[in-house]
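Recall that a protein's primary structure is simply its ordered list of amino acids. Everything else, from secondary elements to tertiary packing, is in principle encoded there. The following example makes that idea concrete.
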Amino acid sequence: MNQKVKLFLILGGIALAFALLFVIDIFAGRIPENPAGTVGNTAGNLYNGGYFCEDSEGRVFFSNSYDHGSLYVMNADESNVEKLSANTVKSINTGGDYIYYYMSDSSASSGLGFVRRVIGVYRSDKEGKDITTLSRFPAGTLLLVDNSLYVQSIPDEGGVNLLKLSLDGKEETVLSTDKIYPASVYNGRIYYNDNANSHFLYQWDTYTDANAVVVKYNMWNPIRQGDYIYFMDILENYRLCRYSLSEDIIEVLSSDRVDSFNVTDNYVFYQKSSDTQPGLMRISLDGSEEIMLAEGVYNNINATSHYVYFQEFGDTITTYRVPLSGTEVSEFYAAANAVTTSE
């Protein structure tokens, strides 16, 4: 074999090795596509901070208020509580093998999964590892729909943008400069109230990235569930209502002034605003079977398949919970005890 042939083979081998390394690098960094119809969290949870998020396997990722909002995971029945990261998280979403969240702060320690940058949208695996920065802008909330993240983002120059982010963070598109709060999605359409002018109900089509008005009525925090849009009625002292898309009618579910609410498969949980008797209330989806679960002023109403979690206004540490169909309110001791165990 002459020298030219030998040199050609060596160079060819080197080129092939580089090509293989390039292909391996591409596929190693690729995020597998989520199943069609993937939604990162419920609208009710995201309107209430997105502090709890349950995946398809019944694992609940949550911001542990007893540990500075650090990222924890547990089973839906509150067993096997485990700390994943010392990062302070909210707006938690999950899809496929990953979780996505907004990080607003970090503990001063070098705990599990510690990240120096304290502001931004992040992705990690479900063990809290392989943390990747997707956006460094402050965010109001984020919503995973199929294989894109829709983020209410606050850029350095001011204003509010609706961003569309790829799951690897490499593609970022400003969809709108309106103050759109992405929380409720149904069949690929995000439902939101216009914050700039009318407060009418709009939908954003995630397939075409086009928006359209749904109904010209003043709504706040709309949540679509089946044929209905649940919302707070701005014109009528923020009472709780639902709008039937098929029948084009509005039903009043409660005449109480509502501060916040969450919708589950069978119930609506809401904070009743009252000077004399405020409280956390539960009603059936049609407004019947009204019951007060806890007297007082509460917020951050988040739901899983087993419990509804909430906090007393002004107390950012203590978290309470009540079974979805039960009435016995108790403190979230599993989260508090897990902090002692992990220290």
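Helices lie at 3-28, 43-47, 333-342. The longest helix spans residues 3-28.
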